[in-house]
Design a protein that fits this description.
Elements lengths: L2 H23 L2 H11 L6 H13 L3
């Protein structure tokens, strides 16, 4: 497996773990918004940080 493939698998595992934790602690409509954001193509680390920070700044 290539390094990129290995990194992507690690990213996917971490992503599923985080989504699972968030699903139990968030309002379902906010969680659906977050899922819609993740449907973008594979973002860079910096893009993910920006998206998540913006998402939680909007939280009521």
């Amino acid at each position: 497996m290539t390094t990129a493939g290995c990194d992507f698998r690690k990213y996917q595992r971490l992503h599923r773990k985080i989504l699972g934790e968030l699903a139990g602690t968030m309002d379902s409509s906010r969680f659906k918004e977050l899922l819609a954001l993740r449907r973008r193509c594979f973002p860079t680390k910096e893009e993910v940080i920006e998206i998540v920070e913006a998402f939680f700044q909007e939280a009521p």
